[in-house]
């Protein structure tokens, strides 16, 4: 009986995947234009969102046939088994949601490779990759735009989970180079100040970087529930293996997995921006 809320949440999140795909087709949300290498670098320097297609596709972790590929998740089964801390049950707004749930890494990977109905959704989210899995350091590269003295690379994070995992609309405290290693994710970005009334940020101190806006709502519902939100500039994109998305610090964004997926976040800051 205890799994029933989690089953309902999983079904709801799967419906949300369909809703997010509708967002990607919406005429009210503009597509994020693809960049080439030079325009991507310029966008990062100008603190503007940008996507570089296949920018990481030559990394070992992104290649299908490389011994260190992460695409089929077998690489993680080669690591020493360890207890990892996962999110369970959807998002923080869902009944039954828990954080820091201890599970064995190999069990998590096995469930992702051979999913069964009725299992709780588990997401290895925002996990410090090099601290917990230093063996993976040679499987990827530092993106070229981060290879200069003015950049402080703060942390490299891994996101690993099934279809329909959802990172609710929020902003990060650092600039983020988000690399899709395996699978696909849909991303919506919203340009708004942290305290803009139209973003409907949570008032609680520990949630102030999260919005109360539910992007599954229709435009008509949003205009009623969140006045002013649909007037904010919004961008959309779908990321596939090898794609790199730049999300500037403070830009609101929501991410949903369209399949079993692995992603990396390179959190960084230009030294001149440190406060």
Key structural traits:
single chain; 275 residues; five-stranded mixed beta sheet
Q: Helical amount among residues, as a percent range?
A: 10-25%
- The class by helix and strand makeup works out as alpha+beta
Strand line-up in the sheet with most strands: 2-3-12-9-14-7-6-4-5
Tally of alpha and pi helices: 6
Strand content: 25-35%
Shape: globular
- The overall average pLDDT, rounded, is 90
Q: How large, in whole angstroms, is the Cα Rg?
A: 18 Å
Q: What is the helix/strand order? A: HEEHEHEEHEHEEEEHEEEE
Q: What report would you give on this structure?
A:
With 275 residues, the protein is of the alpha+beta class. 20% of the residues lie in helices and 30% in strands. It has helices at 4-25, 37-45, 74-77, 105-113, 129-132, 219-225; strands at residues 30-31, 34-35, 50-52, 83-88, 98-104, 122-128, 151-161, 166-170, 175-182, 185-190, 234-239, 244-247, 252-257, 261-270. Strand 2 (34-35), helix 2 (37-45) and strand 3 form a beta-alpha-beta unit. Residues 1-8 have low confidence and may be disordered.
